[in-house]
Amino acid sequence: MATLEELASLVKGKVVGEKDLEITGVSGLDTAQPGELSLIAAAKVIPVARTSKAAAFIFPSNLREFKFKGIEVDNPRLAFAEILWHFHPKKTYPEGIHPSAVVGADFKQGVGCHIAPLVSIGGCVKFGERVVIHPGVVIQDEVEIGDDTEIKPNVVICSGTKIGKRVIIQPGTVIGGDGFGFERNNQGKHFKVPQVGGVVIEDDVELGSNVTIDRATTGQTVIGAGTKIDNLVQIGHNVEIGKDNIMVAMTGIAGSTKVGDRVTLAGQAGINGHITIGDDTVVFARGMVISSLPANSVVSGQPARPHGEDMRIQAATGKLPELLRTIRQLEKRVAELEGKLN
Known about the structure:
Number of strands: 39
Low-confidence stretches: none
Distance between the termini: 92 Å
CATH class of the largest domain: Mainly Beta
Mean pLDDT: 97
Structural class: alpha/beta
Shape: flat
Strand order of the largest sheet: 8-10-13-16-19-24-27-30-33-36-38-39
């Protein structure tokens, strides 16, 4: 529980209404109960807010004219997230190794680490401090994991992977499996290319569930610091991803592509191999990028092209049936005129 004034101080906001109003928790507009705080992120949800049972709201400065009671902030979504953490702080785990865990030789760990039941840890593995490993995780030989990293159930981390600090890996993800490398031999058979490189996950990365990141053929596949990757994303061997990227579910990046910093790849984006994506680029959902893009590109479509151009093409495509009818009518009229002339 906290007062509006305490929460406003937390998010550097301005109290509108009763400063001493006690807030018991946070919830959505349509599920909030008396005493709870809810979010008004934009004007379009005001009708729902008017009927909400919430005691108070977080709302942007440009909606102050609607006279809601609560906390006025510049970025309501960020403030809401900060208050969520206040009411739901990160869970802590007891230090120790569960008796059912299997730990290889020369394992080293810092203070405060938690290793849950049925974890398998290979040889020469090194943990920093306060690392949390959930049940069923498999960590192969010579893996390094930095401070305050949390690995959730049934993740597989293959040999030689390096993981930084404050990384979160959601259930079912596989890091460091073999890259998809084959060459056709003289007999027409697919000859496997050994994948002997590694994977580096830098600090403050979050990987969703069932993400697959392939080890490099040689060298490293790299995920840059601060990058957030959604569920079901595939990253091929030798890909190098920069810092603070967002990659939404079901995106795929083929091998040896380099992605800059602060790039957004929306859902089901497909990125060709051996190309470069410049900093601050946005690829819209299902965009198919087949060639390199300069910095600050905004693209969509299959193949990806400048977003404005793609929208014009899509609009024109929607008019094709009408255009075909017009052409058939014109053809009929031309035929009639030709008949009269003949």
